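hey so u asked for the seq, here:
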Amino acid sequence: WGFPWDSLTLPTLNITGLCDRVFLDRLVVDKWLDRLSDVRRLDWEDCGHLVPLERPQKLEQALQVFGSELEG
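ran it, structure tokens below
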């Protein structure tokens, strides 16, 4: 966690499952994302910690949109 996150300049997609009962600390997520210069944030109320298992089609669509934004 000692990585200088604010030095990253690449586009970043962050997806947070708001029903995460394992690790979600919204204040920590907010602080961390504030350090990234080019972040797209998706907060999903319909899943928890295991986004790829809980909402695979929704994740696939979000990744396709993110990729097409980068290409465009």
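Strands lie at 12-17, 39-44. Residues 13 and 67 are 10 Å apart (CA to CA).
lmk if thats what u needed
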